[in-house]
Write a structure and sequence with these properties.
Blueprint lengths: L1 H15 L21 H6 L4 H13 L22 H10 L6 E2 L8 H4 L7 H22 L3 H6 L4 H28 L3 E2 L15 E2 L1 H15 L16 H13 L1 H5 L4 H12 L23 E5 L11 H7 L20 E2 L2 H4 L15 E2 L18 E2 L24 E5 H13 L7 H16 L13 H12 L5 H7 L33 H6 L10
Antiparallel strand pairs: 1-5, 2-3, 4-8, 6-7
Helix pairs in contact: 1-3, 3-6, 3-8, 4-6, 6-8, 8-9, 9-10, 10-12, 10-15, 12-15, 15-16, 15-17
Amino acid sequence: MIKQYINKWMLAACMGLTVMISSCTKDLDRVPFYDQTSASVYNDFKNYKPILAKIYAAYAISGQQGPAGKPDLTGIDEGFSNYIRQYWQAQELSTDEAVIAWNDGNLKDYHFMTWTSGNEFIKAIYDRIFYVIAVSNEFIRETTDDKLGSHGISGSNLEDAKHFRAEARFLRALAYYHALDLFGNVPFATENDPVSASFLPKQISRADLFTYIESELKAIESELVEARQNEYGRADKAAAWTVLAKLYLNAKVYINQDKNTDAITYCNKIIGAGYGLSDEYRKLFLADNNTSPEMIFTITYDGLRTKTYGGMTYLVHAPVGGSMSAASFGINGGWAGLRTTKSFVNQFTDITGNTDKRAMFYTSGQNLEISDVFNFTNGYAIAKFRNVTAAGVQGSDKTGDFPDTDYPMFRLADVYLMYAEAVLRGGTGGSTATALQYVNQLRQRAYGNTNGNITGTQLTLDFLLAERGRELFWEGHRRTDLIRFGKFTGSTYIWPWKGGVKDGKAVEDFRTLYPIPSADRTANPNLEQNEGY
C-alpha cells in the first residue's frame, strides 16, 4: 500500500504542476511555471508534498501526464528523454554488459564508444540532470527558514517542510553526483543564484563539485529522516550515506585522492542501519521488489500510476525478443533490443543459472557471438527484470504495458562490495575478514549453499570487479566500475564492438568523460569542452 501511495502522490504532482524547460544550461536556475504563482503555491502547506513529488517524478517519468503527451523536455522523443533510461544507457551501453539492436540516431555510438558532443542521447541525460537541478533549486529556494516563516508554516508542518527540503537537497546532490561522474566539469547553480532568463551559470571544476556534493550531503544528514523510517521510495539518511560512500570510493578518479577510509566509514553506517539481504536474488528485480529489505533507495514505478516509455518499462520490454516468452515477463510484447556480450557472459563459469543463480542468460535461438549488432539474436539475452511478482502474478497493469518493478538505485549488496573493495584498497576502519564475510553472504545467496564461497587469498581486486559484474549487472554501475579499475578505455580490457570493431579495440582515455553537449556550449559561452572533444 505504501508503494501505491507514493506513486499516486507522484502522479498527482505531475498532473497538477506544469513544468517546462528548453535549454538546460541557459535555464539551469529557471523558475518552473505553475498555474498559480510560487507565492500562492507555497502559502498552502498541502502543496509542499506534491511539489516535492515532482522532483522525485523527474527521475521516474518523462512528463506531466504519462506515458506521453506533455514532456518535461523538448527536442527528443519523450520516451527517450526519461532520466533512468538515459542514465542506464550511458552507464551500460558503453560497456561489456549491454548492446542494443536499435539503430536510432546516434544510439549505436554508445557501444562503439565513438560518441561526439552532438550525440542526442548524451544530451538527453545531460538535460535530464539539469532539469532535476532546476526544479530542486526552486523548491529549496522557497523553503528557507525565512520563506517558511513568511508563509506561516509552523508546528509539525514546519518540521515536515524541513524534511522535505532536505530530501530536495539530496535529490539535487544525486543529480550533481551523476553530472560529476558522467561529465566532470559542468555548469553550476544553486538556490542562491539569480532567477533570470539572462543568467548563465559558470562552470564548476570536477574537484570543486566533489567538495560541494560532499558538503551538501553532510549538511543535510541531521535533517533527513532516520534510515529505514521514511516512506518507501523517499530518501533518508542511508540514501545520503550511500552517495557519500560512492563519492569516496571513486575519489581517486574524481579528484586524484584516496578516500577509501571515508568510504568504509559510510558503508559501516549503512550496514549498521538494519538492512538485510533478500532471501532470493531474483526477487530484487520483480514487480514486488518494493518488499525487499535490501533496498536503500529506489526509483518507484506502478503500472497504473507512473507510466512512461522509459524507466522500467524500457528495462522490462527492451531485453525481450527472439523466442523469449513475453508473458513470462508479465508484458504484452518484447522490444527486441538489449542483449549482452560474450565478455560479460565469460564472467560466469556456469551460465545455466543452475549453480550461480545470478546467471540470468537466455540462450535459446541466441548466438554468443555478435556478428551483427543490429540483430537481436546476436548476443545472449538477459532475463533479469520482470513485471511479475515472486508468486508469478502479473503486475497491476493487466494490459502488460507498464510494469510495477522498481529501479534499484542503491541496495545493500552494493554496499557490501564497496566495503570489501575499500578495505582491499587500503582503507582503515574495516577488516579483510569482515569483507570476506560480506562477499560470501552474497555468494551463498547466489549459489543456495556454501559451494561458491571463496577464501581470503581469492579476495582480490580483480575478483571484486568480476563479482560486482555478476551481482550488479544492468543496474547502472558498470561504466563507473570499469573506469575505477582502469579497464574502461585503453587495451587492458577489450570486449566485442568496443571501438566499433567486431573483436573490439582500445579507445582513447578521454572517453572516461562524456562531452558537454555542443548545443549547451553554444547557449552558454561560460562552458569549456572536456578534453578530446
